[in-house]
Amino acid sequence: MTEVALSETGHPFDRALTLEEGRGEGVLTGNTDPAYSNMVGPFGGVTAAVLVRAVLDDARLLGEVLSLTVNYAAPIADGPFEVVATPVRTNRSTQHWTVSLTQDDVVTTTATVVTGVRRSTWSDTEAVMPEVPPAETVPPYTKLDFVAWARNYEMRFVTGAVPEPGTGPQPDSTTTLWVRERPSRALDVPALAALCDVFYPRVLRRRGAFVPAGTVSLTTYFHAGADVVAEQGDRPVLATAWAGAFGGGYFDQSARLWSSDGHLLASSHQLVYFKQ
Amino acid sequence: MTEVALSETGHPFDRALTLEEGRGEGVLTGNTDPAYSNMVGPFGGVTAAVLVRAVLDDARLLGEVLSLTVNYAAPIADGPFEVVATPVRTNRSTQHWTVSLTQDDVVTTTATVVTGVRRSTWSDTEAVMPEVPPAETVPPYTKLDFVAWARNYEMRFVTGAVPEPGTGPQPDSTTTLWVRERPSRALDVPALAALCDVFYPRVLRRRGAFVPAGTVSLTTYFHAGADVVAEQGDRPVLATAWAGAFGGGYFDQSARLWSSDGHLLASSHQLVYFKQ
């Protein structure tokens, strides 16, 4: 499979998530990757993925990643960083982690992660997958390619594409797109964590224009086990996002990511800062 | 106003949130309150409120509470606890806190809080307040009173009341209720933080029966400034909650809390553990 070959020879995503052992247990070092640059610092999604990677690689890990909250406390500068992952509490079936990303011992990012063992229980998906045309019938969008990180994703907007000159304000903030990595790569949990932040800020759609905006805090719940995530392979994920309320310089954004087979892979929420 | 008099003479909620200065800056001590006992340990909402209280009382605070994530790592035993609140990063308009609750130096609860200055910006509420009858026309529900903490809330279920024998499985997890403190008390931000966890677990509604369930991680975004929250006074808040997906022993629950004047006060999300 193409994506495995790419992964082995160095997919940009795997390169950005390469972490080396640092000064002590749970301490890892990494480097920002120019391929994931955003307006200021790296794409928030790749930072989230780095923190997930740090927990998944830790020998003390219990179970799978169930939830993740990342707080973007300050921009990350281009260059090296340190990640410290600490299992502050380990129970019989769940484990609670605190994680931080620092540069020169200054905190840029804080996070908490809950991991745990999934058990066989009653299951049901109450959320409804949007009805959309197949991915291959929706043309890829390339006008975001001026932002480095966006070049790593093949985005096929079904509704709510990026505003362009003349789009004007929109009454509904919803965007739904088929999305996968570019070049394609088999989905895994860190990549899913990154995809949860792939949406352009909802305020842009409502205002119909570019306004400065950035994620302050991001929380993702991982509904699907790593096995279901792996079944997705490199097929496009259906991703949909919407907002609840804007005001005082902040808005909330919620998202759901669906496998091409109709499994709800993740639900994600974020608080976003905006100007104007 | 009745609620002010009650607050001054010791409303149970204020008693539960009483914190004393501890061993150093940002270190506070408190005690669990029997009035807020749940099945195991205290009501998660009051724990969230204690952590918010700790940040709001800190002399280093910048702005208002914008977002809160609480991870319930272990049950809190009846008795004393210590809260440590640390502003790990202070920017021009936002501040990032890590907070922990410990008992005998063992972590039971971790949290992150983002505070910040709200600025005048474009605003709009895209979420739609449910259409419901006025609170005073909906009878209060008292059959949850066997749980200590529930006795502190006047709950008037509009839809999705607590399952009773014979209710049976339900296709929709949504519950909407008018809710305020009992005895009534003027709303403030810690009380709002607690109210975001006032819903019985969605899995009970879907299964139509009581099954063991508990919050693992709770995230709340505070849309309304403290001034708008205060305008609510002791009137009932309209609270609505629903689930997205159940499986593997966990489900997600989302909620919105509306002022009686139609302001979206908060959006809240949680990951919940359940059995069976």
Please tag this protein with its features.
homodimer, 276 residues, alpha+beta, Porin, 12-stranded antiparallel beta sheet, 6 helices, 16% helix, disordered N terminus
Plain-language structure description:
The structure is a homodimer of 276-residue chains. Chain A has 276 residues and is of the alpha+beta class. Chain A has one domain: Porin (Beta Barrel), CATH 2.40.160.210. The first copy, chain A, is built from six helices and 13 strands. A twelve-stranded antiparallel β-sheet of chain A has the order 1-2-4-5-6-3-10-13-12-11-9-8. In chain A, strand 5 (94-103) and strand 6 form a beta hairpin. Chain A is globular. The N and C termini of chain A lie far apart (47 Å). The interface between A and B is large, with 64 and 64 residues.
